[in-house]
Design goal:
The complex is a heterodimer of chains A (about 500) and B (about 325). Chain A is an alpha/beta fold and about 500 residues long. Chain A has 2 domains: about 230 residues, P-loop containing nucleotide triphosphate hydrolases (Rossmann fold); about 230 residues, Rossmann fold. Chain A is about 35% helix and about 25% strand. Chain A is built from 18 helices and 22 strands. Chain A has a 6-stranded mixed sheet, sandwiched between helices. A 6-stranded mixed sheet of chain A has the order 16-19-20-13-21-22, sandwiched between helices. In chain A, α12 runs parallel beside α14. Chain A is globular. Chain B is mainly α and about 325 residues long. Chain B has one domain. Chain B has 13 helices and no strands. In chain B, α2 crosses α12. Classes of the chains: A alpha/beta (about 500), B mainly alpha (about 325).
Chain lengths: ~500, ~325
């Protein structure tokens, strides 16, 4: 390692458990000024926990935090801020009704008077210094996600934070916004700030980081200057501990009738979307999150009416389909905890959420037969622990997702809309979910919405790339030429 | 547990208040208790008062289950009484087997209508049901007063605001030789129905899910708005029946003194007891006992009538605070 100056912050032996999960195992980490440090790891590897400890939001079970000469057993948010530690979270904390400058200065201004012009000038100067493009007088409500993120960064700069932590900052950004963020990060580092960049995206990390620390199962398993790492593949192997592309068998299924036809769908941020999905295939909708995928899912799942264009589900027009029972369509939402299941209810109640009509006799619910059915499914789908009396919140993410799949597949769907079905799951659960989806493909057409390209490549028969509300291109997964250009398509480069 | 602690705490606060008024606190609480539960006669009194409170509370609790806050039981109670009275005044010569069911139907309609208004405003205009139902109480009570001071006033009442005395066919009779009336049976039937409904019916399950999370309800394609309307109307109808029983069995006529705040007490009961009908019944008896006991206290010790309301309020506050401490733990630490 190069000889680094005295680090701004040194974490020593940080340890944290959440119940049975050992999120951080005796982690040592140095954060140096003027460098961009990437914390690379899969979902659940412990990156966010570690940084939340540094920001004072989580109290560690063991270890020490050295800031300059001071040593702390743990930090509070207040102490972290005083020490110049600031974090940009994935979910922004801005007041929509206030302007950019007001948000930045909120709670920081001295005195009781508010000087809009002076604070706007200050904020403009701060933004210019690191090359962030923002209008300090604009109201936050009208800003894009990228602009909001810039406001969050300015908040930290305004407080003179010296250590800026970014939790998955690119997940909400469009490619040009990512460019701008990276150049700002570089400028801030050049000005002597320490930047910590949490990510699970290899390409970005290699591009921006000076130093890379790889977390796996709560441990730092490797830490080196970025230059000392080889290609992406090496990083991926280190991060996952095995070769990254899960190969799973994909039997050929005969295509049958179309289950979803979309023609010239417009509105709600969508532009002229047309495609067809047939029984027996998986169509993956890929792209950076926020390019119209959720508007499309909302329309197809009946939550928002199409503004213009034609959507036909299982041969029926949209309005007819959703005014009826809408049977045959199944929606596996990204938010399995808050939308697909009810946290406090037991698994039988959760199972009945969408299957209740099958377990009814007149006005009465036949809970006993539902329980029996669920118990059989739990064995089939290998959901553990296989106890129907548990509450939904007692299941792990992977098992909860398998419960949702078991429930939805039990309805014998013809059309499945699956949104980020493996987000936050470990490799084992991911593989299980993939197998289940491939099996369901034999009976149904699946629209897979994912921002994970590996997932799309492993499962899909065809890919549709979305950018700014349009389908840029739609092609077979065997089309090598187009596959090679997929990154450019996602970035909107023709 | 919490309820027990809350009762002890509110009793101590009450004792303190009594002490400040130079009343012997311990004796007073003993008198209160004896007045409420100390004799067969007192227990009968309690039960008679507990029945309308219980019915109103069931109505409030159904809505609470959906996290819809029905504060309008008082007004729904009034509208139930008005509906029942209207039937009597229109068809005084009907026999009991026609008159009583018609009164029940009219009471349910009156109360249900009064529950429908906040529900519709909530789902259509997103108006806050707490405010609407609360304000509607005053409208209903004023309407009731208008009727008994005006068009429905009994010509032979010497100017008192009251309707004529109901004919015997319009009166819910006593059970045997006791002072309890058949309304108790109606209340018990409602309790059993309530329990069966929530335990075994699909609609009961759907209500439970909606109460847990409207978002999940939307995902599961549950008719959330329809269910909100249904629970508010049902709750209104139950409170309406309480009004019907009061006007028919207890007062035998409609007069302003029918409004003694059962609808507000019902909110306290529903909150104390949460959802099981058995605990609602127990809490109804408890708060009815408080009312009877305070009446006794008034006679024996000249304690102001408002004292009962104060105790009720303290009880609710301690339970609310207790709920907080069940969910959170207080940790003392310095701020840095």
């Amino acid at each position: 390692m190069e000889t680094a100056p005295e680090p701004l912050v040194r974490l020593e032996g940080i340890d944290k458990r959440f119940g049975a999960v050992h999120a951080n195992r005796r982690i040592d980490l140095k954060i140096n000024s003027g460098r961009i440090k990437a914390l690379l790891g899969e979902n659940g590897a412990g990156k966010s926990t570690l940084m939340n400890i540094l920001a004072g939001r989580i109290k560690p079970d063991g270890g020490r935090i050295h800031i300059g000469a001071a040593v702390h057993a743990h930090l509070t948010p207040r102490r972290a801020i005083a020490a110049g530690i600031g974090m940009v979270y994935q979910h922004f904390t801005l007041v929509d009704a206030l302007t950019v400058a007001e948000n930045v200065c909120l709670g920081q201004a001295a005195g009781i008077w508010h000087h809009p012009r002076r604070s706007q000038e200050q904020v403009a100067r701060l933004a210019a210094a690191v090359g962030l493009d923002i209008d300090p007088g604009a109201t936050v409500a009208g800003l894009s996600m990228g602009e909001r993120q810039r406001v969050e960064i300015l908040k930290l700069l305004y407080r003179r934070s010296r250590i800026l932590i970014f939790d998955e900052p690119t997940s909400v950004l469009t490619p040009p916004e990512i460019r701008q963020l990276f150049s700002a990060l570089r400028q801030m580092a050049d000005q002597g700030k320490a930047i910590v960049f949490i990510s699970h995206k290899l390409g970005e990390v290699l591009e921006i980081a000076d130093e890379i620390a790889i977390l796996r199962h709560g441990q730092i398993i490797d830490e080196r200057p970025a230059k000392a790492f080889g290609a992406r593949e090496e990083l991926a192997r280190r991060m996952i501990g095995r070769d990254v592309l899960l190969e799973i068998d994909r039997p050929v299924v005969e295509l049958r009738q179309p289950v979803l036809q979309v023609e010239q769908l417009d509105g709600g941020g969508l532009q002229q979307i047309s495609f067809q999905l047939r029984q027996g295939e998986i169509l993956a909708l890929v792209g950076v999150a926020g390019n119209g995928q959720s508007a499309m899912v909302r329309t197809i799942c009946g939550l928002a009416a199409p503004v213009a264009g034609v959507v036909r589900l299982l041969g029926q027009p949209w309005a007819d389909f959703f005014s009826g029972a809408a049977s045959g369509l199944v929606y596996i939402p990204e938010d399995r905890v808050g939308l697909a299941t009810c946290h406090h209810l037991d698994l039988v109640d959760n199972f009945l959420l969408t299957t209740r009509r099958r377990f009814c006799k007149g006005p009465w619910l036949q809970r006993a037969s539902a329980t029996a059915c669920l118990e059989a499914l739990m064995v089939d789908f290998d959901i553990r622990p296989a106890d129907a009396r548990l509450r939904a919140r007692q299941l792990s993410g992977g098992n909860l997702q398998k419960l949702v799949l078991a429930r939805e597949f039990h309805r014998r769907p013809k059309l499945i809309v699956a949104e980020q079905p493996t987000q936050g799951l470990d490799i084992g659960a991911t593989e299980d979910v993939w197998r289940l989806l491939l099996k369901a493909r034999e009976e149904a057409g699946i629209l897979l919405v994912t921002s994970d390209l590996n997932e799309a490549l492993a499962l899909a028969d065809r890919l549709a790339v979305m950018y700014r509300g349009r389908i840029v291109d739609l092609f077979s997964v065997f089309d090598k030429e187009k596959l090679a250009r997929i990154g450019q398509m996602m970035a909107g480069i023709d | 547990m919490i309820l027990g602690l809350a009762i002890v705490l509110s009793l101590s606060v009450s004792a303190l208040l009594l002490h400040w008024q130079d009343k012997p606190a311990r004796d007073a609480l003993v008198i209160l208790f004896q007045g409420a539960f100390g004799s067969w006669h007192a227990l009968e009194d309690c039960t008679i008062k507990a029945v309308p409170i219980f019915l109103c509370s069931l109505g409030v609790a159904v809505a609470f289950r959906l996290q819809v806050w029905n504060i309008g039981a008082e007004g729904q109670f009034a509208m139930g009484a008005i509906g029942a009275t209207w039937v009597v005044l229109q068809f005084p010569q009907w026999p009991a087997f026609l008159l009583l069911p018609a009164m029940m139907a009219a009471a349910a309609l009156g109360g249900g209508f009064c529950g429908l208004i906040p529900a519709l405003l909530k789902v259509r205009l997103r108006a806050n049901e707490i405010i609407v139902s609360l304000m509607l109480n005053y409208v209903c009570i004023l309407f009731l007063e208008y009727l008994v001071y005006g068009p429905w006033k009994d010509p032979v009442s010497f100017g008192f605001p009251m309707t004529m005395v109901f004919p015997p066919a319009a009166i819910v009779g006593a059970i045997g030789s006791s002072r309890l009336n058949w309304g108790l049976v109606l209340a018990l039937a409602c309790a059993v129905g309530f329990w069966i409904f929530f335990r075994f019916s699909r609609l009961g399950y759907e209500l439970k899910v909606c109460g847990e999370s409207p978002r999940v309800a939307g995902y599961a394609r549950l008719p959330y708005h329809g269910l909100v309307i249904a629970v508010m109307v049902t709750g209104g109808a139950l409170a309406g029946w309480a009004g019907f029983l009061e006007v028919s069995a207890t007062l035998n006529r409609l007069q302003p003194s029918i409004m003694v705040g059962y609808g507000y007490t019902a909110i306290v009961v529903a909150w104390l007891a949460r959802l099981s009908p058995a605990s609602i019944a127990a809490a109804s008896l408890l708060l009815a006992g408080l009312r009877v006991g305070v009446e006794n206290l008034q006679l024996e010790m000249q304690v102001p009538a408002a004292f009962g309301g104060i105790m009720e309020g303290v009880l609710l506050l301690t339970v609310l605070a207790g709920g907080f401490f069940v969910r959170y733990r207080v940790r003392w630490r310095g701020f840095s």
